[in-house]
## 1
Amino acid sequence: QVRVVESGGGLVQAGGSLRLSCVASGSISSLNMMGWYRQASGKERELVARLFNGDTTNYADTVKGRFTISRGSAKNTVYLQMNSLKPEDTAVYYCNARALHRGANTDYWGQGTQVTVSS
């Protein structure tokens, strides 16, 4: 089992920056991906960015060039640096950790952190 905890959300004006942090604990030796998703009010959860073992990254087109996902000194920590924030980035941001559990990839989620961008 893996426990995921996010932090760093808040209220920021358009054009500002925020950094989100995520720490996974528990069975972290089997982690193979960590990432960020977001869910705006009335919308489905969507991928923001993810980071695989080996440092391959994926970004949503809407955040490319503005957001950066990175790993901390420990494999179980990831950050999401968000620059040039827009009101449409307002959402609850969830950290996702994927790990092998009983031979299958299993997704674990944090509780979410609210990011609000005012115009």
Note: The longest strand covers residues 91-101.
## 2
Amino acid sequence: QVQLVESGGGLVQTGGSLRLSCVTSGRTLSGYAMGWFRQAPGKEREFVARLSWSGGITSYADSVKGRFTISRDNAKNTVYLQMNSLKPEDAAVYYCAAAYGISRKYDYWGQGTQVTVSS
């Protein structure tokens, strides 16, 4: 049974930084791209960033480009989201997810970690 567990959320001031982590367990998700999504209260879940299995291909939502960086350490079964220059509109529950290859269908999801940004 595959599990994804996020951590690293919390309360930060506007302009601050946080680093989210997502650890996978159960089996190695070889060949899986990893993505980060977020959902703010009253809003739909939205894509934040994605990283291929090899780490060579990344994509970001326009709203986070230049501020967020996704990375992974396959040896540790961990994917990261470094978030800098945080804004109040970045506040949300952040989820990591796994999609096989180039598929846009995410097969596995974590439970989420809360990020709160104070103004």
Note: The chain has a mean pLDDT of 96.
## 3
Amino acid sequence: QAQLVESGGGLVQAGGSLRLSCVASIDIFSAYDMGWYRQAPGKQRELVAKITSGGSTNYADSVKGRFTISRDNAKNTVYLQMNSLKPEDTAVYYCNANLLATWAMRNYWGQGTQVTVSS
């Protein structure tokens, strides 16, 4: 059964850094687009960053220049390096794996990891 496991969340002061990791137990990891989403209390889940199977990336405007998404296909892992953190980055961060191909469609979510940024 497919499983995504996030780690690396925690409490950090404003201006600090965290690195989130997501290990995916899925077949053909390299074929998936991978994303990080976040959900703050009382708000909808939003896309933070995405990296396609081909390595293209895109970011929410609010994190451009501060966050970097990357992937290691040999380790079935996607990362989110978060620098210059702000209190408004506080949220539960979720890993997503999405496959849209002519031969299959799959979508998986992790359980989330809490990131709290204190002012």
Note: The two ends are 40 Å apart (CA to CA).
